[in-house]
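batch job 7 of whatever, protein = Putative small protein
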Amino acid sequence: MKLNVTPSTGNVFRDLGFRREEAEHLLVRADLMIQVQKLIASRRLTQKAAAKMLGVTQPRVSDLLRGRIDLFSTDALIDILARLGAEVRLTVFGFYDSAT
């Protein structure tokens, strides 16, 4: 049996068929959400305690911890990280020149 393997683009959302621009937005949001989840876990915060610290409802924290990426904008995730005391910096890893 021959197995066909397609190399990854490096962006799982692109690999799933999202347009390049949308895939980049989704990847940034996913990375930010993972950092929020890690900070909440490392501080051993309950959903209720995290909600109070973040100024949101407990169900909103539940959405964060369940990875509901569709419910959070990049700005909202950056705000949440700032409330958790994180310093957020954006790094661009390449340049795409559509003219070439």
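notes: The longest helix spans residues 20-42.
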